Amino acid sequence: MTAASMGLHGDTSVLLIVDIQERLAAVMEEDAMAEVVRNTNILLEAAWRMGIPVVLSEQYPKGLGPTVAGLKPGLDAIEGLHTIEKTHFSVCGCSEFEPIAKTLAAQGRTQWIVAGMETHICVYQSARALLERGEQVHVVADAVIHGDRQRLLGFDAVEHPVALQLGGSDPAKLAAAARIGAEFGYDEINLNCGCPSDRVQSGTFGACLMRTPGLVADCVAAMKAVAAIPVTVKCRIGVDDQDTEIALDALADAVFEAGADALWVHARKAWLEGLSPKENRDIPPLDYERVYRLKARYPNRFIGINGGIHSLGEAEAHLAHVDGAMLGRAAYHTPDILAEVDERFYGEPGRGFDADALIDAIADYAGRHLAEGGKLGQVTRHMVGLFHGRKGARRFRQILSTEATRPGAGPDVIRRAYASVEPDAGQQAA
Ligand SMILES: Cc1cc2nc3c(=O)[nH]c(=O)nc-3n(C[C@H](O)[C@H](O)[C@H](O)COP(=O)(O)O)c2cc1C
Q1: Please, which pLDDT band fits residue 189 given cuts at 50, 70 and 90?
Q2: From the alpha carbon of 308, which atom of ligand 1 is closest?
Q3: Residue 113: pLDDT above 80?
Q4: Got the DSSP string for 155-212?
Q5: C-alpha 328 – ligand 1 centre gap (Å)
Q6: Does the N-terminal peptide bond of residue 161 adopt cis geometry, omega within 30 degrees of 0?
Q7: What is the DSSP letter of 28?
Q8: Beta-bridge partners for 163
Q9: For all residues of the chain together, what is the average pLDDT?
């Protein structure tokens, strides 16, 4: 194609506006959003003056809201506006697109001027699909914007398998979020029915959902319908004055009927009145037997147990009764115990705990995280439990807690902190 043939012409162009919708706009930076609306209105006015057809897409408007009000007058002025309600990232992926594209092609319109939101996903996927169809595509840089999904959802490839936990109770919104999570590359979607914090209760999220198994089932079914990865649930054995024999069976029956792939049970109640989230992880008594009974009821379903498991030995004992054991605080406070997991539970060759290799790997990971705009403290805060009980561990924690949060801190802080830890006997001998 020559440069001359790339020139835009009023009688061969189409204006495509991708998903400039209320709920997406609400999470954008205000000034940038206003500019995108202003510039898209300029495009709309040009289209109106020049008789250029306009195609408007809306991604799942039931969940993400209608097109922003600021574009309404401009859109109302367009004669024969083509509106597409879509559930795919690409505009070209839905059935309504084909007849519209055919009509426009018959009019000789093959130059697509593209404006829109979620530039790196929906605009990008649409532009790519149009190019694959042999259309000419012009993305208008001043009329596109994207949200901060990478910051919220991004993870490193070494973190696989990784689950995305969602909180909520609106099946449509959870389905939209599950689909985004699946397309982002997560390996599992998990619904939180165990978190007792006030903030969460106010939004009908978390443990209070133990009271509404039917609603949880609707949420699971909605997520299963759109995400081709496992959808699982994490819950408690009950809340407040619930009878745990009835409450846990009711929740399990409902979610398995709806297609849940696993149920993880924190083996204690959540007391929603009067206890803080922290107290709710310690004070309500653990009842492992209750979870074992649930497993006996569901021999062919995956039931995992969680709560108060401190060691791999304890985890192994639980595995005689259930399918999985989840470590929360133990993994956080004494992460080195995880070094044995692959050998002990998955039959992989033992590699032992190689602290030097671990520090090299974490420093590399931190370097990648910083290069993508992250902060060192976001990595090091999860490392302070390393070397627990070893000489120099205190200094290691101190360096990480103070230096890693300073502006410009880099992976060298991790290496410096590690230098203060004395090698253990095994390493010295090696
Ligand atoms: C700081 C902290 C944050 C937590 N955040 C979550 C969370 O976001 N979702 C969740 O399902 N559980 C969360 N939990 C609960 C743990 O997953 C786990 O259920 C709980 O700590 C009990 O297990 P443990 O005794 O092995 O720690 C959190 C726990 C802690 C200590």
Answers
A1: very high
A2: 25
A3: yes
A4: --GGG-S-EEEE----HHHHHHHHHHHHHHT-SEEEEEE----HHHHHTT-GGGGGG-
A5: 6
A6: yes
A7: S
A8: 188
A9: 91
pLDDT at 252: 98
| 274 C-beta neighbours (distance < 10 Å), count | 9
Residue 65 CB burial class (10 angstroms; 0-12, 13-18, ≥19): middle
User: 53 in ligand 1 pocket by Cβ < 6 Å?
Assistant: no
For ligand 1, is residue 180 a contact (CB within 6 Å)? no
Residues 6+ apart with CB under 8 A from 328: 281, 306, 307
Distance CA 364, CA 359 (A): 9
237, 250 contact by CB (below 8 A): no
Which of 290, 285, 254 lies closest to 271, judged by CA? 285
Q: Which amino acid is at 164?
A: L
Share of the chain above pLDDT 90, in %: 69
User: 71 CA to middle of ligand 1, Å?
Assistant: 44
Helix (H/G/I), strand (E/B), else coil: 57: strand
Q: Which of 232, 235, 266 to mutate for ligand 1's pocket (most ligand atoms within 8 Å of CB)?
A: 266
Tokens of 114: 């593209």
Query: Please, what's the b/e burial string for 162-190 (b: 16 or more CB within 10 A of its CB; e: otherwise)?
Result: ebbebbbbbbebbbbbbbbbbbeebebbb
CA of 191 to the centre of ligand 1 (A): 13
**Overall average pLDDT of the 69-82 stretch:** 96
| Confidence band of 3 (pLDDT split at 50, 70, 90) | very low
Query: What six digits make up the tokens of 261?
Result: 């792939």
pLDDT in tens, 22-35: 988 887 778 889 99
Q: Is 426 in the pocket of ligand 1 (CB under 6 A)?
A: no
- Which DSSP string corresponds to 65-89? -SB-GGGHHHHHTSTT-EEEEESSS
Which residue in the list 122, 195, 219, 235 is annotated as catalytic? 195
| Rounded distance between C-alpha atoms, residue 105 and residue 212, angstroms | 51
Q: Is 92 a catalytic residue?
A: no
Q: Which two tokens stand for residue 204?
A: 């009908």
What is the rounded CA–CA span in Å between residue 296 and residue 91?
48
pLDDT tens, residue by residue, 205-224 = 899 999 999 999 999 999 99
| Cα distances (Å, whole numbers) of residue 426 to 252, 353, 356, 366, 429 | 46, 10, 13, 27, 5
How many angstroms separate the alpha carbon of residue 183 from the centre of ligand 1?
26
Question: How many CB atoms are located within 10 Å of the residue 23 CB?
Answer: 16
